[in-house]
Amino acid sequence: MSDTTLEKSGVGPVEGASLYDADNPAPVIEAPRKRTAKTPRSTRGNFEMAAWLFMRLSGVVLVVLVITHLLIQLVLDGGVSKIGFAFVAGRWASPFWQVWDLLMLWLAMLHGANGLRTVINDYAERPNTRLWLKGLLYTATVFTILLGTLVIFTFDPNIR
Amino acid sequence: MATPTMDKVAADDAAAASHLITVTFRIRRFNPEVSAEATWEDFQLEIDPKERVLDGLHKIKWELDGSLTFRRSCAHGICGSDAMRINGKNRLACKTLIKDINPAKPITVEPIKGLTVLKDLVVDMEPFFQAYRDVMPFLVTTGNEPTRERLQSAEDRERFDDTTKCILCAACTSSCPVFWNDGQYFGPAAIVNAHRFIFDSRDEAGEQRLEILNDKDGVWRCRTTFNCTDACPRGIEVTKAIQEVKRALITRRY
């Protein structure tokens, strides 16, 4: 009754008939990466545990390494203004600081890369996105570690 | 004789009515048979502030809008069917008093997150129960069945007492940010129920369960955000249980 009066007054219903009904329901919004009886497939190995342990242990070591590094580089003995080629060359003349910097490079890069790996695992929903992001991450990590290691071991203070 | 009695009843009614306050329930509605969009809908009702959110939902369903859909069974915090997101926090509607959640403002009620919403406050619990099944939540033993009960010392029972309280309401799992983004993660509830058997002296499949939880989507994905501990309506220290499983994985083997 009210519908007909609306039509007579020239004002139609604001929206058309619903697209959905009991026989034709709207699609529900699926949760991402739902668990089913078939997924995830179980994998053998302790990699996740090793990665978790590595994060804790490397974190503790890095606190010492990085804070000492920052103190020497930026605070003690004249601060940041003293840093130059000669300063770096002088430090790397000692095997102790070579090992120190090498350890710091490897631990920090692997720690950061593993952290980003877990972030990608947590937030990238599609398998392809994961694959590409992780590929990019691993490439960058390996490149930086290799380049840094090469420089520490082949450093020549008399370079022209 | 009749008149004084009626007066008394009327007086009682007036006294009872003064207890009632007006509360707005803002409920997340979704009905796939009407629309693909979920919308907020406000309901105003007169209710005693000492009543629970579930009583408010009942009032709405029974007196205002019969199409409101939600799960509840025992209505006393035991069956774990009415976990929902009330004022942005996962709680059991049957254990949340209206006076405790600031009735001056609208009370928002949403379905729990991370699971597919089927209608209004009802979600698809299947992925949640799949993770539960995957940790083998039952006693596993070898050898002959004893003729009497399996005895256990009080200390051995105390070891896993906290995790026996779980009612599988999914409040913890659906408050976990890792689970929201990746449903392949076991989630806190499954780990709690694995913990209940891993640390049970009568059970013999602890090593097997640890191996299951050592996997890619097992305990190592936990970021210790403590959302699960905050959400648990039974007060289980969920994050602590997960950490104990991690510790067992490391110390029982090395």
TrEMBL record, chain A:
Residues 1-25 are annotated as: Disordered. SUPFAM superfamilies: Fumarate reductase respiratory complex transmembrane subunits (SSF81343). The chain crosses the membrane at residues 51-76, 96-116, 136-155. Keywords: Heme, Iron, Membrane, Metal-binding, Transmembrane, Transmembrane helix. The keyword Ribonucleoprotein does not apply. It comes from the Bacteria. It is found in: Membrane. GO terms for molecular function: metal ion binding. InterPro entries: SQR/QFR_C/D, SuccDH_FuR_B_TM-su. It holds the Pfam family Sdh_cyt. One of its GO terms (cellular component) is membrane. This is Succinate dehydrogenase. It comes from Streptomyces longispororuber.
TrEMBL record, chain B:
InterPro entries: 2Fe-2S_ferredoxin-like_sf (IPR036010), 2Fe-2S_ferredoxin-type (IPR001041), 4Fe4S_Fe-S-bd (IPR017896), 4Fe4S_Fe_S_CS (IPR017900), Beta-grasp_dom_sf (IPR012675), Helical_ferredxn (IPR009051), SDH/FRD_Iron-Sulfur (IPR050573), Succ_DH/fum_Rdtase_Fe-S (IPR004489). It comes from Streptomyces longispororuber. Pathway: Carbohydrate metabolism; tricarboxylic acid cycle. It is an enzyme of class 1 (oxidoreductase). It holds the Pfam family Fer4_8. CDD domains: fer2. Keywords: 2Fe-2S, 3Fe-4S, 4Fe-4S, Iron, Iron-sulfur, Metal-binding, Oxidoreductase, Tricarboxylic acid cycle. It comes from the Bacteria. This is Fumarate reductase iron-sulfur subunit. Its cofactor is [3Fe-4S] cluster; [2Fe-2S] cluster; [4Fe-4S] cluster.
